[in-house]
Amino acid sequence: MNPPHIPEQPAGESPYRRGRRPEPICETATAAHRTWLEPVRNRFVASGLTLDDLVGRSGYSKTRLSELLRGKNYYPGWEITYSVVRALDIPVGPLLRLWKAAAVEAEKTPAWISTRIRAVQPSGRDEPPLAHVGLTQTMWHPYSAYAQAFLQSAPRARQAVGETFDILWLNWDEATTSPSPDTPRFAWMPLRSKVLSRTPRRPAGHYDLRAAAFSTTVQAQAPDLVERLARIDVFARFFDAIARLPADQMDVTVLRYLCGIAPTAIPGIVGLPPALTHTLDHHARWALKELFPDAETQE
């Protein structure tokens, strides 16, 4: 049997073979662009299709598809993106929302975005897996509380949480082929990434949580302005100390002491075993006492 014919590629470009990942995403692609492009690339590789197959299914040239898969030269319109999405049987709804967010980051105008979307008439409606719906309903509140603790804005928190669940939907097969206890962890990691990527940093490099001091109940109950300002200063320094903790300790501490989440619920939220979560909490409290001796946390 003769080997399958692989069409010649332009000079300097590697051929796409079945199961072979495309060339790396260009460094100029923004973080929001990569958010939807990486699942598309993963689905393309998993499909076993060649670039020629994708040409036949999408109707676009090999050069344009290659540029799209690498995030090269331009931010792609929705028409070509949608053609690839349908060819690879990717859910349209979450991909479209992530595409729009990345288009805004790429400084595309609202008119450009709406015109590109109107040019396509989607067929049917995607429904998320029931387990995804259940996880969304369960985690929406704690995820939002965590996001708002850092971002101090309900709309920005909703956007970060919504994007997290869209990412999870696009990667649902991967999330659910791991052992069951890992699914919450699989979901938590993009949530943390989305939130922290939008959080300003202090000159020392750690995240800036000081603004959370203005929204605490304790300082709001101060009888006069002088005492309120004093309490804000104390809380601002305390929250700044929290932001210096290692990532998992910081997550557990923020959920418990800033968001008011019950300690028994935190393991299921961050996707870590209860014993490890308890240990992280214990280490965090001791670290806070070293960083900020006036910190008061309850056992």
Structural features, described:
This protein is an all-alpha fold. The chain has 2 domains: about 30-120, 434 Repressor (Amino-terminal Domain); about 130-290, no CATH class. The chain has 15 helices and no strands. It has helices at about 30-45, 50-60, 60-70, 80-85, 90-105, 110-120, 130-150, 155-170, 170-175, 180-195, 215-220, 225-240, 245-260, 265-270, 275-290. The chain is elongated, with a radius of gyration of 23 Å.
How would you describe this structure in keywords?
2 domains, 434 Repressor (Amino-terminal Domain), 299 residues, 15 helices, mainly alpha
Count of beta strands:
0
Using only CA atoms, what is the Rg?
23 Å
**H/E series, N to C?**
HHHHHHHHHHHHHHH
Helix fraction by DSSP (H/I, runs of at least 4): 55-70%
Number of helices: 15
What is the count of distinct domains? Answer: 2
**Which parts are unreliable, with pLDDT below 50 for 5 consecutive residues or more?**
1-17, 217-222
Characterize this entry briefly.
The protein has 299 residues and is mainly α. The chain has helices at 31-47, 51-58, 62-70, 78-87, 92-105, 110-118, 130-151, 154-170, 172-177, 182-197, 217-220, 225-242, 247-258, 266-270, 274-291.
